[in-house]
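WP5 quarterly update. Target: SH3 domain-containing protein. Source organism: Qipengyuania citrea. Length: 117 aa.
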Amino acid sequence: MTAPDRYSLPEGVVGLNGPVDKPAPGTLPLRGDLAHIALAQSYLAAHYVIPQPRAVGASPATLKLNMRDDAEDGTTLPAGQAIELLDCAGDWAWITCGPEGPSGYVRLGQLAPVIDA
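Structure tokens (predicted):
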């Protein structure tokens, strides 16, 4: 798999020097266990993921800060918005608009269907 053209994969040894401030929930696509591959040179995570291009479905989708329907709301994305799928767990998808965010959780059914070429 290759990363989308708008950012490059890190090369060489990746490491951090000094403390790093933890971003607010719903901003950068970064969790303790997983992060967007474009953040590898700036943030430490157990794993980095190359996102899969997807889109929001026919209705706007409000990002949740946790995988719960009653979780705090984040940004609302318009119908058809291009997004990057980072992780799936049960009926939830962790998505982002790119390495700069925003990020959050939506139900998988809120994403447009994948069309096989």
